[in-house]
Write a structure and sequence with these properties.
Largest sheet: 5 strands, antiparallel
Number of helices: 9
Order of helices and strands: HHHHHHHEEEEEHH
Helix content: 55-70%
CATH architecture: Roll
CATH class: Alpha Beta
Strand order of the largest sheet: 1-2-3-4-5
CATH topology: Nuclear Transport Factor 2, Chain: A
Length: about 210
């Protein structure tokens, strides 16, 4: 009996030791945003095509660096509100894809204004127990106004994920929640939202 207890205790200790490195790898939300933002800004400054506002390259950069850290399902659920539960699984997939494309181009459009600007962060305030936080940043250049880029993050099992973006003073999830409600009006529902998203993305792609 004692031997079994000793083995059980040893197993628990070893399992806890094995898990420790995984927990240690979880990045703080402000540290994650700072790292990703600085990487993106440094890449833009080092590439003449990116500095000249090559949208295709900027979109590809943001898609590879920033977007994997965004919880698109939650953001889409919030923006579509009650219409999410009315959508079929196929429509929910399309809503996420189209909304991701729209957010990707909106965020990339803000970054296309970056030339010789510097990135700064507001003081980060959060409690260790918080599961939702906001990291506030802005891009500032010589003789130009600040480009505000804030991130709302939620703590998940795999780490922190972005659940909303504030670009130039507007939270995108909240902003599009209002717009989607308008597009879904007059009985158009989910189809109305999808039609607007599809057309808007086509318009933005053509610019």
């Amino acid at each position: 009996m004692k031997r079994r207890s000793w083995l059980a205790a040893l197993a628990v200790s070893l399992s806890g030791f094995a898990l420790a490195p995984a927990w240690a790898k979880v990045e703080a939300p402000d540290a994650m945003v700072k790292r990703l933002s600085n990487e993106v800004l440094a890449t833009i400054k080092a590439d003449p095509a990116l500095r000249d506002g090559d949208m295709a390259k900027i979109v590809a950069l943001v898609d590879s660096k920033i977007m994997p850290n965004v919880n698109f399902e939650q953001l889409t659920r919030f923006a579509t509100a009650r219409y999410w539960s009315q959508a079929t699984p196929e429509q929910q997939t399309r809503l996420q894809e189209e909304f991701k494309t729209l957010l990707l181009r909106t965020y990339s459009g803000a970054l296309s204004e970056v030339k010789d600007q510097t990135l700064s962060f507001r003081p980060f305030r959060a409690n260790p127990a918080d599961t939702e936080v906001v990291v506030r940043s802005f891009v500032k250049g010589q003789g130009s106004g600040d480009i505000q880029l804030d991130y709302k993050l939620q703590k998940e099992a795999s780490g922190w994920k972005v659940i909303d973006l504030n670009v130039l003073g507007a939270w995108l999830g909240e902003n599009y929640r209002t717009r989607f409600a308008q597009e879904a009006g007059n009985g158009k529902g989910v189809d109305g939202i999808l039609a607007w998203l599809t057309q808007t993305n086509k318009n933005m792609a053509g610019k």
